[in-house]
């Protein structure tokens, strides 16, 4: 079978990809605006929309819409000739607890009306249920995924089938779900049941859920993060390997008078200036936006796509880490999410491209970047003998056989690597933070431990004293130099 998802470029765990559907190819990461069934979506092209998502269950439930959808097709119904994803009604199931349709019926219906990407009827488990309950619901979801897979032929049917990962907040269940769904085999894996986490700003949990799912899916499979529509989370989610988002947020937030930005949410009532240059914000005043929810929604959509383009350019330039570090400043809990992410550094390192053009130190989390971890793991590659000088200064009157410079957070690096990524071209502040110093000192200790026969001399400023205590106690000679 021909691969339907092709990865063009990567950074951190994020990627720019091309997803093939029956109504054309879309480039990811991208946002699928949520469209009310039966409404005209054609005006959305102007925003950069490539694919929309609508609800198959709501279409099915209304006799008129159902008849039209079956007769004329979903694309006719929405006046949209490009790709359309349909959701199955799972979310209605979660919100209202009862819906009257069988999984097989809604899956067949999605195919019948010409959906490009269909979704079986998964159960979006709540986040406050017991493990036993979550496991039961997950087993039901997995059975429905199997049933759907048997109905939709990967080769003969035009519809891509998505296998949603559930499992509430339990890491073992997310892992199990991902493994089982992979065995069944889907072309797209949505991560579901995360809306309540995002509503409560529980970004650490969100990061864990994404990574425990991702850890057990094929790295080359496209991932959709269900219900994530706020531009401030896109960069983090893409860096974690998510490719598709759906946004009802742009209208939902507008109806609550909220003006979205990648830096957070503003209340239009409280605003005096519009910090955006989209067509809406260029041509209208704050007053206009206050009085017109449609204008507010349009701005919300423009700013969401602007952020997606910014993310894609960051991937191309291998600067996604730096963008994520800026974006998590939007809310302390997003910063917690990034901290959770770096606790998976070993895993992330396996995906992150080896060579980039720059490394900007953007705060303590930078000490846990793949580049730093990788450098530390490779300290055993140097063949050293005799005297090694580790120094923060270029010229010193000390004899040596090997010269290492000292640069936080990497620690000691041989002068031969001065021009080599990441150590050489890394940009770090003149006054490194605590984490960078701790990481550098740990790498000094590691290099010393790896080379028991070598005599080390360290030449550095007194700022290093507290970090080198163990090394000094072990008898390594340290020469203090003036700043
Ligand atoms: N929309 C938001 N969350 C979900 C989910 O978990 N499953 C499905 N099918 N749709 C969703
Ligand atoms: Zn705007």
Summarize the structure in words.
- The chain has 483 residues and is of the alpha/beta class.
- It is built from 20 helices and 20 strands.
- The protein has two domains: 5-349, TIM Barrel (Alpha-Beta Barrel), CATH 3.20.20.105; 359-480, Rossmann fold (3-Layer(aba) Sandwich), CATH 3.40.50.
- The strands form six sheets. A six-stranded parallel sheet has the order 6-5-4-11-10-9. Strands 17-16-15-19-20 form a five-stranded mixed sheet.
- A hairpin with a 3-residue loop joins strand 16 (402-407) and strand 17.
- The longest helix is centred in the middle third of the chain and has 24 residues, at 293-316.
- It starts with a strand and ends with a strand.
- Zinc ion (ZN) binds next to helix 12 and helix 14.
- Residues 87-88, 90-91, 119, 122, 124, 164, 192-193, 195, 226-227 line the site of guanine.
Topology:
Layout: E1 5-11, E2 14-21, E3 24-28, E4 30-35, E5 52-55, H1 56-61, H2 63-72, H3 74-77, E6 84-87, H4 90-96, H5 103-112, E7 117-118, H6 131-151, E8 160-161, H7 171-184, E9 189-191, H8 195-199, H9 203-214, E10 223-225, H10 231-239, E11 244-247, H11 249-255, E12 258-261, E13 264-267, H12 279-283, H13 286-291, H14 293-316, H15 320-327, H16 332-342, H17 345-349, E14 359-360, H18 370-377, E15 387-391, E16 402-407, E17 411-414, E18 426-427, H19 434-450, E19 455-460, H20 469-473, E20 477-480
Parallel strand pairs: 4-5, 4-11, 5-6, 7-8, 9-10, 10-11, 14-18, 15-16, 15-19, 19-20
Antiparallel strand pairs: 1-2, 2-3, 12-13, 16-17
The protein binds guanine and zinc ion (ZN).
Guanine binds at residues 87-88, 90-91, 119, 122, 124, 164, 192-193, 195, 226-227.
């Amino acid at each position: 079978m021909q691969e339907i998802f092709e990865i063009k470029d990567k950074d951190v765990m994020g990627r720019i990809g091309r997803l093939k559907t029956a109504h054309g190819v879309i480039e990811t990461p991208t946002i699928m605006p949520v469209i009310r069934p039966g409404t005209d979506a054609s005006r959305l092209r102007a925003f950069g929309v490539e694919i929309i998502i609508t609800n198959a269950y709501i279409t099915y439930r209304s006799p008129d819409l159902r008849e039209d959808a079956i007769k004329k097709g979903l694309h006719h119904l929405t006046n949209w000739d490009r790709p359309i994803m349909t959701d199955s009604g799972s979310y209605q199931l979660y919100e209202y607890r009862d819906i009257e349709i069988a999984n097989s019926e809604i899956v067949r219906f999605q195919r019948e009306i010409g959906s490009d990407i269909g979704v079986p009827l998964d159960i979006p488990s709540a986040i406050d249920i017991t493990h036993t309950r979550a496991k039961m619901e997950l087993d039901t979801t997995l059975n429905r995924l199997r049933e759907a897979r048997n109905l939709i032929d990967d080769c003969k049917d035009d519809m891509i089938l998505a296998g949603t990962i559930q499992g509430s907040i339990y890491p073992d269940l997310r892992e199990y779900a991902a493994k089982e769904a992979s065995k069944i085999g889907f072309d797209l894996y949505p991560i579901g049941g995360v809306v309540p986490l995002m509503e409560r700003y529980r970004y650490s949990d969100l990061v864990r859920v994404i990574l425990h799912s991702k850890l057990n899916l094929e790295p080359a499979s496209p991932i959709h993060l269900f219900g994530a529509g706020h531009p401030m989370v896109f960069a983090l989610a893409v860096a974690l390997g998510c490719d598709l988002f759906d946004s009802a947020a742009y209208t939902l937030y507008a109806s609550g008078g909220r003006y979205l930005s990648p830096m957070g949410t503003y209340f239009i009532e409280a605003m005096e200036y519009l910090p955006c240059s989209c067509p809406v914000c260029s041509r209208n005043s704050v007053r206009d936006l206050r009085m017109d929810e449609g204008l507010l929604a349009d701005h919300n959509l423009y700013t969401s796509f602007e952020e997606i383009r910014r993310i894609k350019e960051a991937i191309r330039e291998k600067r996604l880490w730096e963008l994520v570090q800026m974006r998590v400043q939007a809310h302390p809990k997003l910063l917690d999410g990034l901290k959770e992410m770096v606790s998976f550094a070993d895993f992330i390192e396996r995906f992150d491209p080896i060579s980039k053009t720059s490394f900007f130190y953007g705060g303590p989390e930078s000490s846990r970047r793949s580049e730093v971890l990788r450098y530390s793991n490779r300290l055993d590659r140097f063949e050293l003998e005799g005297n090694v000088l580790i120094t923060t200064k270029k010229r010193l009157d000390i004899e040596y056989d090997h010269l290492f410079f000292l640069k936080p957070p990497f620690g000691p690096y041989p002068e031969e690597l001065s021009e080599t990524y990441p150590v050489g071209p890394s940009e770090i502040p003149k006054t490194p933070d605590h984490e960078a110093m701790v990481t550098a000192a740990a790498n000094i200790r590691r290099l010393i431990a790896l080379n028991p026969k070598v005599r080390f001399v360290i030449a550095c400023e007194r700022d290093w004293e507290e970090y080198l205590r163990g090394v000094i106690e072990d008898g390594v000679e340290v020469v203090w130099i003036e700043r």
